[in-house]
Design a protein that fits this description.
Rossmann fold, five-stranded parallel beta sheet, single chain, about 140 residues, 5 strands, alpha/beta
């Protein structure tokens, strides 16, 4: 099997660069595309057909929730929501993105992407490797 192809959808350049560096440490994962918002992300999903998508929740033009709904309706792909908006206390957000079809959520570290980056890197890589094994079904838009 080839590398797991990942699309990153995130409006922060700093965050996207950190995620790409983390994922590039795994010989099993390749970042094949990066988008600044859900609209750009949607175009790339159709063009690149990634195995796994990582998306932020709060983004301009099209947020992560609407992006997840569109992807799951038109091109079902395992999605990891990687966002400040899915901390343990953000039960409503977590519920909404999971209902929309996201397979998993992961909270960004609170300390400006600092903290123990190695444990975050390991968690992110493990989550993506697990998500790549999941088959997801289309969820029609309501």
């Amino acid at each position: 099997m080839g590398k797991i192809q990942v699309l990153l959808v995130e409006d922060s350049d700093v965050a996207i660069n950190i995620y790409e560096k983390m994922l590039n440490t795994s010989r099993h994962i390749e970042v094949i595309g990066k988008a600044k918002n859900g609209k750009e992300g949607l175009d790339l999903v159709f063009e690149l057909k990634p195995d796994v998508i990582c998306t932020d929740l709060q983004m301009p033009q099209m947020d992560g929730l609407e992006f997840t709904q569109q992807v799951m309706a038109h091109y079902p792909t395992p999605i990891l929501v990687l966002s400040n908006g899915v901390q343990k206390e953000d039960v409503d957000n977590i519920y909404k993105v999971m209902k929309a079809g996201a397979v998993d959520v992961m909270a960004k570290p609170q300390t400006a992407l600092g903290g123990n980056s190695e444990s975050m890197q390991n968690e992110l890589i493990v989550k993506i490797r697990v998500l790549a094994t999941k088959k997801v079904s289309a969820i029609p838009l309501a």
